[in-house]
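Quick bug: Phage integrase family protein with SAM-like domain output formatted oddly.
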Amino acid sequence: MNRWLRELPASGAPAANSWQTYARMLKDWAEFLAVHGVGLFESRERLKAGLSRYTGHRATGPVKARFAATTWGQHMSILSLFYRWAMAEGYASAEPFTYRAARALFAGTGRRPVWAEHAERTKTFIGKLGKTRTVERDRLRTDHDRAQRVIAEIDAATAPKPDKDEQ
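Here's what came back:
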């Protein structure tokens, strides 16, 4: 970890403030993993499981621990850079998760139940509308369809993907 941090000025992060941010975010990640019994260079599966826990912690955990989506994106960008460096240096055998997958995981955390409840309530309400309420029915069907699409997108983004080696 320290070696990567020392190499930051030469690898495109010349600002000292950036080094501090990178160090703090990497330290937070490493400490979280350690508390949950996962090493920084464990297997891809263990790190992905750690990421799932970390996502829940940062999205819906204690208020002081929560990240905004933009902060999460920055954090995942830094971790992605770190793991690519670790692969190039022989510390890691594979990138445990992609930036895109990590962002999608955060976007879905805690939000799927809200959308599912909205879809169910809208469906119930549509069923209770009288036959003459066509304008309201059409509007609610559009709303229901949107909720279903959002749920499908969350499910697709957070579904486990097979490793490239397994394909």
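Actually, after a second look the formatting is fine. The two ends are 31 Å apart (CA to CA). Closing.
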